[in-house]
């Protein structure tokens, strides 16, 4: 019994601590929310430069590692083949990384920037370009670089060095295995579990709200807590069933379905919308985005409320999502080279995001200004309000709700899988019993915060947690660089020894 408690101490401490802290926060939600607001405002006001700087460093690190001498190093043994085919790999990493957010913000964000740009007048051609380049910035290479850095370091330690699939494993090259597997490592893993749960609960809550809003807008289904509880309950059953079937059958199948539905949705949108304008906005937005990638878009000295509300907020959000997404991407990337991994994780999902925002952003730009202003009043319904003004808009919105639900299930499924790994000493195939506990925990906490009206607060908690977690990602870059350098030195030493043996024999 003592051995089991010691083995599972991360699991038990996390569950007990999480329940205690969150029950306390709900019963004191006003005070807790005030503390969160003050902390978040302090971080956004004093450390906005830090968020921007670390996001730039993630991208630069990926470029250096991917295109340098370490690019051909395998995430696994030298003769290993990729565990998953390219299509399934792309589908899984994309579904886990961003899926649900594309429906939520695909029309809403570009439309917000188009109506009220940072500078100049809204509803102009300049405002369109501004809206595209900022949407590309917030959803393109930068967030995927954040995921890629952590995922790459984890995959390398798991599959190349045979270490547990834990965030604490990243500390081994820096502090040694004994400390990394002791209480210091346990604290890092428990903190990672907390950050993961906070991010997932927010995503589940926002997903339930948008599905409910869409059903209300299309079919007059009441928009209230009872319907949201039913949605969460049904989704919970789906992702629990998916999680119990394992990675190959559950998440992989759902992810492939997601991408198929998303492909159909975007193809229909291109056909019914202003097709030429979509491609024009794509190219003009992409041109503006790349020109200003390291100047205006990532200037660490930017100030102002607009940047705090959008760019800095997003940077904290993506860092907060790095633990569950990074761990999951690492899990599905065995057998790929570092260069192949980085090209796949950085470029393909980013291009899909660029196309998605160009297509649906243009659909938003093309409606009457009255409709546009009405759409941005509520982010949850922006997609449905705009699509209602196009042919077959109701059908497209219905398909979007289905896609929202499948993305919803996949995100929760992959997060449940990750939580199971983190609380099972890094097991690549955690037991269904632990996945079940985390699945129920996620649903219960989402319901509790919806009932308490504290969903926005838990989102802020997640972003606050991103600040200390950013240092863990920085350490992971240092750790990976050190491990790769040591490996190359060892390989070169072995090669020289072999050469001397051949010479003297």
Automatic annotation (TrEMBL):
<feature type="transmembrane region" description="Helical">
    <location>
        <begin position="342"/>
        <end position="365"/>
    </location>
</feature>
<feature type="transmembrane region" description="Helical">
    <location>
        <begin position="259"/>
        <end position="279"/>
    </location>
</feature>
<feature type="transmembrane region" description="Helical">
    <location>
        <begin position="227"/>
        <end position="247"/>
    </location>
</feature>
<feature type="transmembrane region" description="Helical">
    <location>
        <begin position="461"/>
        <end position="480"/>
    </location>
</feature>
<dbReference type="InterPro" id="IPR018093">
    <property type="entry name" value="BCCT_CS"/>
</dbReference>
<feature type="transmembrane region" description="Helical">
    <location>
        <begin position="87"/>
        <end position="108"/>
    </location>
</feature>
<keyword id="KW-1003">Cell membrane</keyword>
<feature type="transmembrane region" description="Helical">
    <location>
        <begin position="9"/>
        <end position="27"/>
    </location>
</feature>
<protein>
    <submittedName>
        <fullName>BCCT family transporter</fullName>
    </submittedName>
</protein>
<keyword id="KW-0813">Transport</keyword>
<feature type="transmembrane region" description="Helical">
    <location>
        <begin position="136"/>
        <end position="159"/>
    </location>
</feature>
<feature type="transmembrane region" description="Helical">
    <location>
        <begin position="436"/>
        <end position="455"/>
    </location>
</feature>
<dbReference type="Pfam" id="PF02028">
    <property type="entry name" value="BCCT"/>
</dbReference>
<feature type="transmembrane region" description="Helical">
    <location>
        <begin position="394"/>
        <end position="424"/>
    </location>
</feature>
<keyword id="KW-0812">Transmembrane</keyword>
<feature type="transmembrane region" description="Helical">
    <location>
        <begin position="180"/>
        <end position="207"/>
    </location>
</feature>
<comment type="similarity">
    <text>Belongs to the BCCT transporter (TC 2.A.15) family.</text>
</comment>
<dbReference type="InterPro" id="IPR000060">
    <property type="entry name" value="BCCT_transptr"/>
</dbReference>
<feature type="transmembrane region" description="Helical">
    <location>
        <begin position="47"/>
        <end position="67"/>
    </location>
</feature>
<feature type="transmembrane region" description="Helical">
    <location>
        <begin position="312"/>
        <end position="330"/>
    </location>
</feature>
<keyword id="KW-0472">Membrane</keyword>
<keyword id="KW-1133">Transmembrane helix</keyword>
